[in-house]
Design brief:
The structure is a single chain. Helix content is 8%, strand content 53%. By secondary structure, the protein is mainly β. The protein has one domain (2-22, 34-170). An 8-stranded antiparallel beta barrel has the order 1-2-3-4-5-6-7-8. The longest helix is centred in the N-terminal third of the chain and has 14 residues, at 2-15. The protein is elongated, with a radius of gyration of 17 Å.
Length: 171
């Protein structure tokens, strides 16, 4: 499934114009007026979950997202960076953007689509002027269905996922 998604993404990207177009998304995931699409990246990797006791009930347990761990690819399939905890996106040029989730849109059998706002930018490069990020076209990455109980506290699970990330900045 991931291979088909990746190939379809790359073929579609190669057939399109050099500048990506903003995707069609639910109303709650639209970026504010005045934002320009700066970059699109395909992510392939894993969502890492940790088995923990619930905060409200130490006798109940749940899988909690620890961090993403993915590589980022441009429209030609070349690796351009990585995505990791924070959530943070780091470009090969050294620039970074960390985000905070503003909105979610549920997706069946996959992690939700997201709208995030940049909370910090570092370096000089592709991610320097990013103010909003959309995560869409998600495949996989859902918390494990395996048992999370007292005997498994601290266990981690890496669940494969892929997504497209759209990075925006003010005009």
């Amino acid at each position: 499934m991931l291979l088909r998604f990746s190939i379809a993404f790359m073929l579609a990207a190669c057939a399109s114009a050099p500048m990506p177009r903003p995707p069609s998304v639910p109303e709650n995931l639209k970026v504010p007026e005045g934002q320009e699409l700066l970059l699109r990246a395909a992510a392939r990797g894993a969502q890492i979950y940790s088995c923990k006791a619930k905060a409200a009930d130490s006798q109940a347990f749940e899988w909690v997202l620890k961090a993403p761990d993915a590589e980022l690819f441009d429209e030609r399939g070349a690796k351009i960076g990585r995505h990791y905890g924070g959530p943070t996106w780091e470009n090969a040029d050294g620039s970074r953007v960390a985000g905070e989730v503003l909105q979610r849109s549920a997706v069946q059998d996959a992690v939700p689509w997201l709208l995030l706002r940049a909370r910090s930018n570092e370096g000089s490069g592709a991610f320097t002027k990013v103010t909003y990020i959309q995560r869409i076209d998600t495949v996989g990455g859902v918390a494990p269905s395996a048992s999370c109980d007292a005997a498994h506290v601290g266990d981690e699970a890496r669940i494969d996922y892929s997504a497209n990330y759209y990075f925006y900045g003010a005009r």
